[in-house]
Amino acid sequence: MQNPPATQRTQPQSLTDLFVSFTVLALQGFGGVLAVAQRELVEHKRWMTNEEFVEEWAVAQIMPGPNIINLCIMIGGRYFGLRGALAALAGMLLVPMLIVLLLALVYAHFATHPGVIGALRGMGAVAAGLIVATGLKLFPALKKNALGLATCIGFGVLCFVAVALLRWPLAYVLLGLGSIACVMTYRRLAP
């Protein structure tokens, strides 16, 4: 089946479509969903643009709880209200939860096996690579940001320095830099 043209926007057809879509998304992105979520929601489903995805993901990150859960609730709520938010949430959690429970039983039995330890280390490297690749793919969307590309890069560098080098708590860094970015954006967008 061929993807629709880039300009054609679609939306979930029903609560079942929402549930199944988020179940498939959750099963594809086991252990790290950002890369899969962007590809599925923007490129395959075309439920949102790259710019909308970046904006929604930013909101999902500042809300309490897992980012992808926040995103699925926002998308479900956008199209079907509370019922949509619950259907998307159930799709994101139900089947993965069952799989995790089964894996926990298996892991308890084989946790000390060297092959299992090596496989888990390898999966960590793959997850890091997926996050970097998705960041690079979403980078061009910053050109349309109200703050501009240079300012966004500056905030990213400041955040990296504060957390990785200075070892400041992430919550304080996000609160501080996020507040400054929000004020700057508000001032640039104010009439």
Please, could you describe this protein's structure?
- α1 (15-28) crosses α4 and α3 (50-62) crosses α4 (67-110).
- By secondary structure, the protein is mainly α.
- The chain has a domain at 1-112.
- It contains 7 helices and no strands.
- The mean pLDDT is 87.
- The protein is globular and about 60 Å long.
How would you sum up this structure in a few lines?
The chain has 191 residues and is mostly helical.
**In angstroms, what is the radius of gyration?**
19 Å
* Number of strand elements: 0
Q: What gap, in angstroms, lies between the N and C termini?
A: 45 Å
What portion of residues belong to β-strands? under 5%
> Low-confidence segments, ≥5 residues, pLDDT <50?
none
Largest sheet: none
Derived from helix and strand composition plus strand pairing, the structural class reads: mainly alpha
Mean pLDDT: 87
User: Tally the helices: what do you get?
Assistant: 7
- What would you call the quaternary organization? single chain
Q: Helices and strands, in N-to-C order?
A: HHHHHHH
Properties at a glance:
single chain, 191 residues, mainly alpha, 7 helices, 75% helix, globular
List the helices and strands and how they pair.
Elements: H1 15-28, H2 34-44, H3 50-62, H4 67-110, H5 114-138, H6 149-165, H7 170-189
